[in-house]
Write a structure and sequence with these properties.
265 residues, alpha/beta, seven-stranded parallel beta sheet, 9 helices
Length: 265
């Protein structure tokens, strides 16, 4: 049986995990590899990228680990140059890097606001700046941006910079889709809802009395009664990156167990 991404090259930014277990980028890299893609796994923490690569290699698939700070244009340019030298093409650009920092406009510092905007939004701009010329020359490419349901809904967390950055990412994705469709390049975003990934234990847990309370509350948010996981996001990314989605571009796909349909009541 043929694999959906046979012989393609997938560049995954944020391919490491922020803690033990499976983050969204790590899972996406593994799923892409299982479907035949050669992976360039990029993370600011090279050891985290190498852990992902080791898992992929243990399954008999090909991957390379690189380190980069995604808010630095020179770092991104270096990653693209090394990827092109090694593989000669980039078929999939997967932008997974993202952070949350709590604070409303009164509480949040300007530094915090700028940091979240740089990591969550500028990083995608820079990745696209350096990858799009490659995809234009190929007349083919798929961009998958990991956004958040927080781009279109307001939840109990006071992370105003996160709301704004992810909303901006959604609109950037739609603009990319329209601008580059004539070149055979598709751009889509995924909006995860409440997910059980390592990030929530580092960046969300402080909003609750303890971990058990957090897990109970977040499971209860979902109409399905439980949080999703990184592989729910990864499988959606695989679909959007593959030819199964050849006529789909400019969508912001909720992967949320029905949460976005629930409303605020």
């Amino acid at each position: 049986m043929s694999k959906r991404l046979e012989s393609r090259v997938a560049l995954v930014f944020g391919a490491g995990s922020s803690g033990p277990g499976w983050g969204n980028g790590k899972a996406a890299a593994a799923v892409y590899a299982r479907e035949g893609a050669r992976i360039v796994a990029v993370d600011r923490d090279r050891a985290a990228a190498e852990e992902t690569v080791a898992i992929i290699a243990s399954e008999g698939n090909e991957a390379t680990a690189l380190a980069a700070e995604v808010t630095r244009s020179a770092d991104i340019a270096s990653v693209i140059a090394e990827t092109m030298q090694r593989y000669g093409r980039i078929d999939i650009l997967h932008n997974n890097v993202g952070i949350t920092e709590m604070g409303d406009p009164i509480e949040a510092s300007e530094e915090s606001w700028d940091r979240v905007m740089a990591v969550n939004l500028k990083s995608v701009f820079l990745a696209c700046k350096h990858v799009l010329p490659v995809m234009k020359a190929q007349r083919r490419g798929a961009i998958v941006n990991i956004s958040s349901l927080a781009a279109v809904t307001i939840n109990p967390y006071p992370y105003f910079s996160y709301y704004a950055s992810k909303s901006g990412l959604n609109h950037l994705t739609r603009a990319l889709a329209v601008r580059y469709a004539p070149f055979g390049i598709r751009a889509n975003a995924i909006m995860p809802g409440v997910m059980d990934t390592p990030l929530i234990y580092r960046q969300i847990a402080g909003q609750y009395a303890d971990t058990e309370t957090m897990l109970k509350a977040r499971n209860a948010m979902s109409p399905m009664g439980f949080m999703g996981d990184a592989f729910d996001v990864a499988r959606a990314a695989l679909f959007l990156a593959s030819d199964d989605a050849r006529y789909i571009t400019g969508i912001c796909l909720a992967v949320d167990g029905g949460l976005s349909s629930k409303g605020t009541s």
